[in-house]
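Why this split exists: single-chain examples teach little about how molecules sit against one another. For that reason, every record in the complexes split bundles all components of an assembly together and asks for one structure covering all of them. Below is a record exactly as it appears in the raw files.
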Amino acid sequence: MYEDRIRRPALMDKVMTAEQAARLFKNGMTVGMSGFTRAGDAKALPLALVERARQEPLNLTLLTGASLGNDSDGLMANAGVVARRMPFQADAALRRKINSGEVMFIDQHLSETAEQLRSGDLKPVDIAVIEAVAITPDGGIIPTMSLGNSANFAQQAGKIIVEINLSAPLALEGFHDVYIPGARPHRGAIPLLAPWQRMGWTSIPVHPDRIAAIVITDSPDSPSNALPPDDETDAIARHVIAFLEGEVKAGRMGPELRPLQAGIGTIANAVLHGLIDSPFRDMTMYSEVLQDSAIELLDSGQLSMASASSITLSAAMHEKFIRNIEQYRERIVLRPQEISNHPEVVRRLGLIALNTALEFDIYGNVNSTHVGGTHMMNGIGGSGDFARNAQLSMFVTKSVAKDGAISSVVPFAAHVDHTEHDVDVLVTEWGLADLRGLAPRERAPLIIENCAHPDYRPQLRAYYAEALKGGGQTPHVLEQALSWHARYKREGSMLVK
Amino acid sequence: MYEDRIRRPALMDKVMTAEQAARLFKNGMTVGMSGFTRAGDAKALPLALVERARQEPLNLTLLTGASLGNDSDGLMANAGVVARRMPFQADAALRRKINSGEVMFIDQHLSETAEQLRSGDLKPVDIAVIEAVAITPDGGIIPTMSLGNSANFAQQAGKIIVEINLSAPLALEGFHDVYIPGARPHRGAIPLLAPWQRMGWTSIPVHPDRIAAIVITDSPDSPSNALPPDDETDAIARHVIAFLEGEVKAGRMGPELRPLQAGIGTIANAVLHGLIDSPFRDMTMYSEVLQDSAIELLDSGQLSMASASSITLSAAMHEKFIRNIEQYRERIVLRPQEISNHPEVVRRLGLIALNTALEFDIYGNVNSTHVGGTHMMNGIGGSGDFARNAQLSMFVTKSVAKDGAISSVVPFAAHVDHTEHDVDVLVTEWGLADLRGLAPRERAPLIIENCAHPDYRPQLRAYYAEALKGGGQTPHVLEQALSWHARYKREGSMLVK
């Protein structure tokens, strides 16, 4: 049994149930789990840990690549298993625990967690739980649909638990490129000069003695929960494409553009989907996650290849991807998130970065994380890794939320994740503001007139006119700067009636 | 005459007065001038441009390395010569013009200006004005006390004006390492693996035909305006040193620490000065500017070498430096600011970054630039380049300003230049808050109790207690979040009487 999945016979002894493997955990441990944007997460151990926490206290620090699927984050949070969580999450139940202060959430740039572990700035990982397609004869772990921080966790953990997922096709072997930078300060450059380049192993190299348990599972990843494109995301896509056509026309890039990065979620997915009708050819992606749109662009031939840390698809697209997997073998590379998001590589390749804002202010400061300035949505994810170092840093959002009660364009961002220094272009369904080379006083009218919903433009103009009276590089009326958020909380709408 | 300074005889024809050279400029042009933190700035052309603007309209876009000396920025601003300015300044008169909206100031990460010029995201430089020690036989320009963006300006400009400064010793030849990254997306890694490494030329290579004018000057750089250490900066230095001793003890680094970066100004200079009494040995610097303290540490032998983009010294230290210049030849490297501040290199070397905050909030968001949230002080400079990518990102400030009327620790930063994601350690004269691996709710009490002035702690505690009632990852009372700044404006003090 499992000879094709566990290719080192001596490791057969380590096969056990998730319940047995869960006994390796102790209260207070730091655990690193595979999983990035619902892809490649461990399926059995989260549930087994929830069970164990019913019998005895089990408060863990949980690190992952990014968000988990299968409601694992919520189930573990509700069972009290997760006391501390980093670097990202996207689960409704866990979010509640975070915002109530029951779970300490450390919101990090996704490229930095591995570096901080390696530097000793974070407590070391005691146990790594890694979902795998198979284990090689020398003990190498072949990951499934994401790579995330798995290689770093496995390299550092005292014990490794491998979940062999029988539903993950063996054909995934060869998609991964496992490269781990050395310790600082004496390390070399990351030798990646193009999105398609491979520089590492196809499995995570670990000494087989450190594999403490192997658990067999058979359930698939949770499908993507991105919504289909709509009129507004279509409009956003059109503005982005028109802008990029202008860049090509101005000679700043060719019709292959620059390597594309697109954040997780509905809007970024829709914008990429819109590229199918664009004139661009021979594009590449250097991103953190591949959604349905990336596969569509590979199929249409406009995308020649795609590099990322995970593949997160709808159920239908997943089925199609697996059926035709050989078509993608030479065209997709899965990397550790430290590499997919690395500032060194992002700056060198000069990406076009496309990320989603919750809100932005009239000067171009972006809030990606905090609803109303206080409550965590998901986390900053890779948006900072990309926005800071990309050649073109674009942020997209719909101009209003909650049926118009919330304006995504506000006088003052109630939480700042990306400062005006790192934001080149803002886009809503109403239009696009190209902020490159502009001072704050030049940015404000452009953002208000091009991006804000028409219903909110008079209010924004009035705020800016009032602010100008006080002068400054970045004029504000401090007493009113956050009043829109307060009004929404008080009256249910940011709009002045 | 000048044979030792103009070593290509054919260029002797190009020697002219600054007034003659100023006639090359046309209204609306983009001009790139040498100069970084008052070091190596052009001395004659700024004054000649001011003169010319008396006769005819001359509104220029002025790019530099960083701040200029000799009141050049102010004189040019007052004469209307500077219509647009980037990426940094530190002049009182120019600051007034910026804050009144008369000059458009684009505040940039100092590593990014050159990249944006190369990518065509900024309008190209028409004329470069570069202060030089000499011109080599093949037309290479040997810079003076800074390198800044000079090589990039010279590479791109249609015409180059060289100011040969006779007061700059010929012995400066050999201190510079001119390396310019290629255009994206097809460029290699920056081959810098250690602070002392050299990889380029000792002069800026340009075709001699592009040198349109040579102007002879003889006046020195403006001396540094950093203030001497005081009791509070001494206390800050002690906290920093004790913390770094803890890092060594914990095994996270050796007694050579990591390459050090320290921002311009009094506090960073004082902290470095404090290292003279520290147990650390064989340290290196990889910074953007070397101040008096760096020379002191080189002299004491604790610093083995220092890399930066400029040398900005007091008059006495400058005189000593020039007198003993041969002692420093093998121990100082001057680089383009794109390289001294490059995210790729900063991340690879794992720097300890020490920068000055204007204010920070109880969650660790830092304001480096905007007084009262609206009025520009100097600019973000290199602080973002370093803070984002350093292994340890520290921000220092005195806990109060204006005799206690302003608290540097506030509920909500009135302008955010560095987000909580990029800030590891905060230090005031009262103490140090180590924020690594902490969630916002863990950060707030630590920052309040360790860093805030005791007079302001009760107010901060009360704000935080009130904020907690509303919940969230980052609790705030939006109506009160910016009220401290408003109170200062209204009542002259942030302190509630």
